[in-house]
Amino acid sequence: MEKQGKNYKLVSCGEINGGGRIVLHDQLELTGAEVSVNELPAGVSVPFVHAHKRNEEIYVVLNGQGRFYIDGDEFNVQAGSVIRIDPAGARCIKAGNNGPLRFICVQTEAQSLIHFTENDGLPVDVKPSWFE
Ligand code: ZN
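Above: the input entities. Below: the structure tokens describing the complete assembly.
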């Protein structure tokens, strides 16, 4: 499903199987973050170690088990694991042998967040149909 309004855009990242990766920057016309939905097949590693110039990354593991390498540390992750990595962190990810590792990765410029949650939210005097 796709839908767009004055202040939003909705797309579907669909089903990801067999090592798929969907980068949502262009589809959603993102301006402050990059979001990707990723699936590494069982036993498969990202084939390189990388860092970033300015962006921190947040990985949210949705399904499966796997292993992270960050600056020489190696540790297991599983559904529910959430990892923040500073731009300079040298990182790599591998899916466990028992099944695919599915995760969301969010990139945003490190130190850029000034207002968040209740400090950035504003009450607006309109109501959805389910407010009766
Ligand atoms: Zn990255």
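Note for the figure: The chain is about 5% helix and 40% strand.
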